[in-house]
Known about the structure:
The complex is a heterodimer.
Chain A: H1 2-34, H2 40-60, E1 69-75, H3 80-91, E2 95-99, H4 104-112, E3 118-122, H5 126-131, E4 139-143, H6 147-153, H7 157-176, E5 185-193, H8 202-226, H9 236-265, H10 273-296, H11 301-318, H12 330-338, H13 340-353, H14 358-379, H15 382-388
Helix pairs in contact in A: 1-9, 2-8, 2-9, 8-9, 8-10, 8-11, 9-10, 10-13, 10-14, 13-14
Chain B: H1 2-18, H2 23-33, E1 44-50, H3 55-65, E2 70-75, H4 78-86, E3 92-96, H5 100-105, E4 109-117, H6 121-149, H7 154-161, E5 167-171, H8 178-207, H9 216-245, H10 253-278, H11 281-298, H12 310-317, H13 320-332, H14 342-367, H15 369-382
Amino acid sequence: MAIRKLIFYRKLISKQSAVDFMHAFHRSFDNEIVGIFKHFTAHWLMWILPLVIFVLISSIFYRGVLFDLPVGYIDQDNSVLSREITRNLNAAAHANLINYDNELSQAEHDLEKSAIYALLYIPPNFEADVLSGRQPTPMLYYNALYYSAGLYSIMDYSGLIATLNEQYRVTLANKIGLTTPPLIKINFNYDGLYNSSGNSMYFQQFSAVVHLLQLFVVSMTIHLLGNLPKHTRLSYPFVLGKLAPYTIWYTTLLIFEIALLVFFSDARVSGSPIAMLIVVFFYVIAAQSLGILLFSFTQTTIDAYMYIGLLVGLALTYSGIMVPELAMPWIARLISSIEPLTYALNKLFDLFLRHAPYLSVLKTCAILMIYPIIITVLVRKRLVRRLYRKETLT
Amino acid sequence: MIKLFWTAFIRLSLRLLGRPMWLLLLISVSLMSLVYSNGTIIDLPIAVVDMDHTTSSRDLIRSLDTSAKIKVKLYDNSWQAYQDINERKLFAVIMIPRNFEKRLLSGETITIPAYGDASSRLVNGLIQRDLQTIYQQILTNFNTKIMLNNGFSPQQISIILSPIKGQTEALYNAGVSFAAITLPGLLVMLLQHSFLIASTRTNITLNSLPQGKPPKIIFIGSLCGLLPIWLFLSLVLFGLWPWILGYRQLATLPDILMMSLPLLLGTLGLSKLLTECLRHIEMIYLTLAFLTTPVFYLSGTIWPLDAMPLWVQFVSKLLPSTWATNMIAGVNQMGANLSDNWDNIFMILLLGFIYGSLGIFIAALRDGRVRRYFRHRFKHRLH
Lengths: 394, 383
């Protein structure tokens, strides 16, 4: 009987504390909703800056594919064949040829100043050498430091040379006096998988948008915690209630930005938008917990902001967009696996372009939930103490 | 006057040495560089689904395996290979079709399909080029055998197969190192960004001292006190870092200083403008932290400026880092002369001057000095 009573009272107490928790959470949530846009900083961090940056990044990469890149040429032969090469290369999509006559030093100078991204050099007696079987080499030098521009500017060159070689093959065989046997024809078709829009920069924009949202969430969390009134009775439901409106806001904002990106890039979406929403929601929660961690383990809010700088570079580098995880050294893979951005980005890409089952979505959400759990354990004693610490912001 | 300048200069320099928060920049760069420690991509797993199992298909696989960039994994069926590429265990899948050898010998046209993961643009581009080169080599080998059997000499075969030996040559970045592609622009941006934060913070702190604004010479002395640390950082980032990561570094240390100093001076002008616009230390962090990624993209290193809309090109040209990246990458990695970059130096200093002047004007407007000046002029005219 006594045990039954004990269990009953325990249940009652736990029910009561859950009710208290929810009550405090609700009150804090409602308070925050009412005053969410009271200060300019909130407007700045919640929509002005995110949208300005979104427009800027989308505009930077709006072309997606590079066409008509400036390519210099020096034609020391000036024959029918050499003119055919320059004319056809210019007519192709990626290069816009600029004649340097014979001013090699000027062309070199422009290449070094990135005014042109490649330089085609056709040697003297080029056509005569081709016809007499001396196999001359027209060289196409390209800037491999400015890699995108350099790579695109030479894209049409190998196809053009292959076509010309086929044309001259019969002439040369006839000159030798032998008939060319039927040669093997193997077509090597290289296609890019998971390129939803045919736009090669789509991923860069996508990852930048998802990555920057994490920073906005972390900064907003630190700003919010740093500005909580010190005289109020601070408790966990109170803090969670304060944070919850921002979880909803940033989840909506990211989904909105992704939708805009998909719309303007005309990208194909193969996954479920609901699953996407769930992943983004957990991603925002993980980012908020990172904000709490930074806030709790720093002396001042400004110090916490300083560490965001570290986070910016790391998240961007290790998200797998600059260098894919498969090509990273093991230590980099380890760091990459600590970053919530890696999981969120991979799963969002999967939901867009690959075949991601719901179980894998749940797995990602579970991984993203590890962050708040671990961080709650880490900051359980520090957070309230830190929230009461007075500091001045100049 | 000189004494005040010197005192402020020394005080700030010593403070920075005593509390070296600027080392965060080096920690950040070190961590970011770990990802590039392999230089370029090596041993990227690629599936080959051999549906032919003949000598010719095995020759093809052997040739593919000679590339250092890829590591061939053999698969019996395409379903498993696609499953693995979907789960990010593979980077590409190459299919060798059934009857490959038979159709090869009978002179039929054969198509070898390959699919790469296009979600990584850089790597996909590299792998595509590498595979195409290997494929060309394989094709030449097969055709050489056929022509040898038809009585052609090796020299004749070479002439007939390639009457023109078209070649492409990668400049300024041997082996196409990822660090060399990313870091020159990124490091300039980080240097500018960290200096901008430090100088704006110094400006705001001096503006809001409890005892009131100090004389201008103290401002100048304190801001100049930041320069030695950031010049040292520029030596580390542009001189030492390429050496550590194994990419091209050509500029001498005095040249690096000559290029970094205008960048820092231009940034000082920008920081004056930001100080007057932002006015709170918190706002510096809540604004500048987010601009790092767009500023990096705007530098023109990973995506050319010509491909951006005109208004974005204009914004890009308003940033000292865009001109500095063009100059530092040009001199330090591409071997351009510093003397060819006076236009870049001039533009950085001009931008710094314009921003600084705008900042001073806004400050004067806020203090009411502009109003007083015009009122005084107006009164003077009336008299």
